[in-house]
Amino acid sequence: MLVPLDHDGSLIRHPHRYPNPDEIVWEEAKPFRAFLVLQDTTTAQGYGKYVTWRELHGVRRWPMDTEPAFAAIKHLLIDHGVIVADQPPLWTFTKSPARGGEAYGIKLVRRRFLEQEGDDTTPTTTEENR
């Protein structure tokens, strides 16, 4: 999937509404790690509600639909809008239908507990464990 970015590297939510479509840079969507700060909430009629995150030490911004935002808030420790963690969380890009085009955003990549601990093996039961 290709995602639209502006000259600062910020994700463009609605490229079909962007004032200068020739300036949009389309790049391959690769998951990324970053500490983000909750910057703004936007409400609109219907399904146009979303939040905007920005880099903790940078200028890039990423929109996020409310459903993934609720999941991120539920699974992260956030203090005064800043994500608190020992390492940056992993984020990936989303694309959904929108009035007149597509809406782009990000979401938190949640991992299973064993994957978080660096152990990707699945526990097995044996006769001794029963």
Strand order of the largest sheet: 3-9-10
What value does the average pLDDT take?
84
Number of helices: 2
- Roughly what fraction of the amino acids lie in strands? 35-45%
Following the backbone from N to C, one meets helices and strands in this order, namely EEEEEEHEEEEH
Structural class: mainly beta
Give a count of the beta strands, DSSP E runs of length 2 or more: 10
Instruction: Give the end-to-end Cα distance, rounded to a whole number of Å.
Output: 46 Å
The residue fraction in helices comes out at: 10-25%
Written overview of the protein:
This protein is mainly β and 130 residues long. It has a domain at 30-112. 11% of the residues lie in helices and 39% in strands. It has two helices and ten strands. It has helices spanning 66-75, 113-116; strands at 2-5, 25-28, 32-33, 36-42, 50-55, 61-65, 77-79, 82-84, 90-98, 101-108. The strands form four sheets. A three-stranded antiparallel β-sheet has the order 3-9-10. The longest helix has 10 residues, at 66-75. 18% of the residues are buried.
How do you describe this structure in short?
The protein has helices at 66-75, 113-116; strands at 2-5, 25-28, 32-33, 36-42, 50-55, 61-65, 77-79, 82-84, 90-98, 101-108. The protein is mostly beta strands. The chain has a domain at 30-112.
Which features does this protein show?
2 helices; 130 residues; three-stranded antiparallel beta sheet; mainly beta; 10 strands; disordered C terminus
